[in-house]
């Protein structure tokens, strides 16, 4: 089948959707997009369902050749995309003719970009998802990051590029070096001293190079426990913030383990997870406490916006 030919793979390019839900009790991580908002908007811009699989591009983009006419959208980080050598905008639907070459320049802002194609990729569904779980070599394209020479077929390749395209688009967001990240208190917050809680909410923490799709390790002022960091292992949500014995927080992300044995001081709210996903080593976080009710209302507002875009999107 026709699709994309990988000429150069980039630093880390994987197939991701919204994740492999319903299998954590068997030790299967959710995986999926680190920046779920950017992935959903990319899909809506090309007429796909919000949970369709996209390419997640990390820091250094790939070079791709299209074997068929299609429509693409690139969201997330500003990766300076070029189509046949000409700069194109992100955050909008772009028609692409057969034989075109898409490549990317040095990253300007953010960390991860998302490339959606109309109709999505014709790849196997594994446990309800096309997401790549790298450590388990599961899903996506052969359970791994893309390599030179790979071929990713499309599920649809009969588009008429003389048709209509979405009139709406988004302004490329900027991802500042310093970010305020909202959290609710975690299930083991009582395991930290009052001073430890104060330190967590009144300090700046730097993203370290030991950060990846599994979690972001941070460094900064030590967070004090009352009597050790160990707990009986329990479930870990996306954005859960563990604090092991060294007092340095770890924000667990898309490829997080299903359970963990360190006390969790807080959980990043859903609408701020994309800010962490778009962060690089050297970026700075300051954590802001919000209530569960505030977090829920912010999530519902994000869902209302996405649902309104979905309602009015054009199908190709």
UniProtKB/TrEMBL annotation:
SUPFAM superfamilies: Cyclophilin-like (SSF50891). InterPro entries: CT_A_B, Cyclophilin-like_dom_sf, PxpC. Residues 25-305 form the Carboxyltransferase domain. GO terms for molecular function: ATP binding; hydrolase activity. The keyword Hydrolase applies. Keywords: ATP-binding, Hydrolase, Nucleotide-binding. It comes from the Bacteria. Gene3D superfamilies: Cyclophilin-like. Pfam families: CT_A_B. NCBIfam families: urea_amlyse_rel. This is KipI antagonist.
């Amino acid at each position: 089948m026709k699709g994309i030919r990988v000429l150069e793979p980039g630093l880390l390019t994987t197939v991701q959707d919204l994740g492999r839900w319903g299998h954590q009790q068997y030790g299967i991580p959710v995986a999926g997009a680190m920046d779920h908002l950017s992935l959903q908007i990319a899909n809506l811009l090309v007429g796909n369902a919000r949970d369709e699989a996209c390419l997640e591009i990390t820091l250094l983009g790939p070079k791709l050749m299209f074997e068929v006419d299609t429509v693409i959208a690139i969201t997330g980080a500003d990766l300076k995309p070029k189509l046949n050598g000409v700069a194109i905008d992100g955050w909008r639907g772009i028609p692409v003719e057969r034989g075109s070459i898409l490549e990317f320049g040095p990253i300007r802002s953010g960390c991860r970009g998302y490339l959606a194609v109309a109709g999505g990729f014709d790849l196997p569904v594994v446990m309800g998802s096309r997401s790549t779980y790298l450590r388990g070599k599961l899903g996506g394209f052969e359970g791994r990051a893309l390599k030179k020479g790979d071929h990713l077929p499309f599920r649809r390749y009969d588009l008429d590029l003389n048709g209509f395209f979405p009139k709406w688009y988004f302004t490329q967001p900027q991802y500042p070096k310093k970010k305020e990240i909202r959290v609710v208190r975690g299930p083991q917050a009582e395991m930290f001293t009052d001073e430890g809680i104060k330190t967590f909410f009144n300090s700046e923490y730097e993203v370290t190079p030991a950060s990846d799709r599994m979690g972001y390790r941070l460094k900064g002022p030590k967070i004090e426990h009352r009597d050790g960091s160990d707990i009986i292992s329990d479930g870990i949500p996306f954005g859960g913030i563990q604090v092991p014995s060294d007092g340095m927080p770890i924000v667990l992300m898309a490829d997080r383990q299903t359970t963990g044995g360190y006390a969790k001081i807080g959980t990043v709210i859903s609408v701020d997870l994309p800010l962490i996903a778009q962060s690089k080593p050297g970026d700075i976080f300051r954590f802001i406490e919000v209530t569960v009710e505030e977090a829920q209302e912010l999530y519902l507002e994000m869902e209302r916006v996405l649902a309104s875009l979905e309602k009015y999107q054009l199908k190709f």
